[in-house]
Design brief:
Shape: globular
Structural class: alpha/beta
CATH architecture: 3-Layer(aba) Sandwich
Strand content: 15-25%
Bound molecules: NADP nicotinamide-adenine-dinucleotide phosphate
Order of helices and strands: EHEHEHEHHEHEHHEH
Number of helices: 9
Helix content: 40-55%
Distance between the termini: 43 Å
CATH topology: Rossmann fold
């Protein structure tokens, strides 16, 4: 039996918006318990309300992923997690819209890299004890190319991709699934802040459904759309 096909106890960071909120909704069904994190209590509560309406049990945590101690206090006591999605992240574009407070390159690394580590670390020890569980790390197709418009963002996502790939190698024999997610452009408040053309942009609901299908098969790398993924791999050669 595939232990990854039907996770029931699921934790998602950055669930108050965009892809994280869409992921919460695809996993929202009777019998499932969702643990949702974010900084904005009101947006988080709205997502939780939809999740409960779909029949799932849900709790929320207002927490900053950069705060290692608070992340440990939230995640470590939840001992039977089937799936953890380290999704929370920021880009520098969000700063331009004033969507988030003061964001500098250091904040991009703190959120996108340290925030992922702070999510994975308190979950993985229980998974080792149980010999099961699954962790998904949110990288990006931007991890394959150092775009001059977003050096910190691309570097942070490359770090997450390498971290996830190494974790997979280290944990496969332990029975733990690790996947790295590399989306192209997805409609969300993050991309709403972009003023440039975003080829093959897709809706967050479509992206979330695709991610769910691939996680159920414990795919090492969930990269989409494939055409842009292959283009990025070729570009990365130059
Ligand atoms: N949209 C895309 O095209 C795209 C493409 C590739 C990868 N990604 C990645 O996908 C993830 C989700 O992005 P999105 O497009 O859905 O963006 P979004 O709508 O801006 O959502 C970002 C989420 O991360 C949370 N977050 C940000 N900083 C946080 C912090 N310090 N502590 C806790 N939560 C924090 C936000 O919560 P609050 O608002 O409540 O603080 C929000 O729920 C990010 O890692 C992003 O880099 C996005």
């Amino acid at each position: 039996m595939n232990q990854f096909a039907n996770p029931q106890n699921i934790l998602i960071t950055g669930a108050s918006s965009g892809i994280g909120a869409a992921l919460a909704l695809v996993y929202a069904k009777p019998g499932n318990k969702l643990h949702l994190g974010g900084r904005d209590a009101s947006r988080l509560d709205t997502v939780a309300e939809y999740v409960r309406k779909s029949g799932a049990d849900c709790d929320t945590k207002v927490v900053n992923v950069t705060d290692r101690e608070s992340m440990h206090d939230w995640i470590h006591p939840i001992s039977e997690l089937d799936l953890v999605i380290a999704n929370a992240g920021i880009s520098v574009s969000t700063r331009k819209q004033g969507y988030a407070v003061e964001i500098a390159d250091a904040d991009v690394f703190a959120t996108n890299v340290n925030g992922v580590v702070n999510t994975v670390a308190p979950a993985i020890s229980h998974m080792h004890e149980r010999g099961q569980g699954q962790i998904a790390l949110m990288s990006s197709l931007a991890s394959f190319r150092a775009f001059r418009e977003a050096p910190a963002y691309c570097a942070s996502k490359a770090a997450v991709r390498f971290y996830g790939t190494g974790l997979r190698r280290a944990n496969t024999d332990e029975g733990i699934g690790i996947s790295v997610i590399c989306p192209g452009f997805v409609r969300s408040p993050m991309t709403d802040a972009n003023t440039f053309k975003m080829p093959m942009i897709m809706d967050a609901e479509v992206a979330a459904a695709l991610i769910q299908r691939k996680l159920a098969r414990n795919r090492p790398m969930i990269a989409f759309p494939l055409r842009i993924y292959f283009a990025m791999r070729i570009l990365a050669l130059f």
